[in-house]
Every structure is written in C-alpha cells, then in structure tokens.
UniProtKB/TrEMBL annotation:
Signal sequence interval, chain numbering: none
Subunit structure: Homotetramer.
Xref: Gene3D superfamilies: HAD superfamily/HAD-like
Keyword Flavoprotein: no
Pfam families: Hydrolase_3 (PF08282)
Cofactors required: Mg(2+)
Name this polypeptide is given: 3-deoxy-manno-octulosonate-8-phosphatase
Keywords: Hydrolase, Magnesium, Metal-binding
Protein family according to the UniProt entry: Belongs to the KdsC family.
InterPro entries assigned: CMP-NeuNAc_synthase (IPR050793), HAD-like_sf (IPR036412), HAD_sf (IPR023214), KdsC_fam (IPR010023)
Organism per entry: Bacteroides clarus YIT 12056
Length: 168
C-alpha cells in the first residue's frame, strides 16, 4: 500500500493492543493492560481522516471502554468471522478490502490478513502468521505494535513527519 494511504485501518485487540494476557482478580473480574502508545496511532490516523475499526473475538466491555476513550466509532466485539464483518463495513464505507490495512496476530485473523491491501502483525506473533503478512513490527503486542504499524503506513506514504509536526 506504498504510495496510497488506506481508507480504513482495522485492528485486532488481544495480542496487538494487549500482551494477550488476561488478568483475573480473586472475584473473577478480568483486566487487560493497554499501552498508551497505541492511542497515538489512533490520533495520527484521525488527523488524516482515516477511520479505525476494532474487530475482536472477545466480547468484553474493557475493549468498548478503550474504544470510547479513543473515540473509535467502529468497535466490533465477539466477532466470529472477521472477513464478513470487514466486508460489511467496507460496503458501508464504499471501499474495498484492497483499500484496508489490518493488523492481527493469530489464526482467527489470517483469513482477513490475506485479503486486505496491507497486512501486519506484532513481532511476537507465531512464525506461520508472520510469513503471511507484509510487515512485522519490532514491538510486541501490548507494547506499541499498533502505533508502530500506523507510523510505518504513514512513513511509507510520506505523511508521518507532517502528522507529527502538528503536535510539536
């Protein structure tokens, strides 16, 4: 997707925005750790009017709260078929999967990773997933992988420095 910015960026959450761990309290509550670095990736895309969609197989309000905090309008929880969900969103937005960038980390992401215009995975993804994507971040999931992915997209299209300067 070099030479053309995506018209939509889709991201998985567990293993991309989180380290993939689930933290349980004695009462059974689940907690997830998010990196604030990834929030900047969303902000950078918003500066260029590129929407972000979260698609995760997990159905937890923790992810909804993170999406709300970052003003992400497209947040799909409990997704069993990410390709079908992405195709539906693309129809709604009037774009094709070829105009989408997606970062995912595991087997349930692979069908969509194979169809989008630009695919990526975090550095700690299994090798058989890494072989299928166009870019592998050096950052691990939960440690800025999403932001690195966004910065790579913007840098490859000559837009990263322009966006960064808006905040200096």
């Amino acid at each position: 997707m070099i030479g053309m910015l995506p018209k939509l960026v889709i991201t998985d959450i567990d293993g991309v925005w989180t380290d993939g761990g689930m933290y349980y309290t004695a009462e059974g509550d689940v907690m997830k750790r998010f990196s604030v670095k990834d929030g900047w990736g969303v902000i950078f895309l918003r500066e260029l009017d590129i929407p972000v969609a979260i698609m995760t197989g997990e159905d937890t309000q923790i992810v909804r709260k993170r999406a709300d905090k970052l003003k992400i309008n497209y947040c799909y929880l409990g997704v069993k078929d990410k390709v079908a969900q992405a195709e539906e969103l693309c129809r709604e937005l009037g774009i094709s999967l070829g105009e989408v960038a997606f970062i995912g980390d595991d087997l349930n992401d692979l069908p969509l990773l194979r169809l989008v215009g630009y695919s990526a995975s975090p550095g700690n993804t299994p090798e058989y997933i890494k072989r299928e994507v166009k870019y592998v971040t050096t950052a691990h999931g939960g440690y800025g992988a999403f932001r690195e992915f966004v910065e790579k997209l913007l840098a490859d299209n000559g837009r990263l420095q322009t966006v960064i300067e808006r905040f200096l």
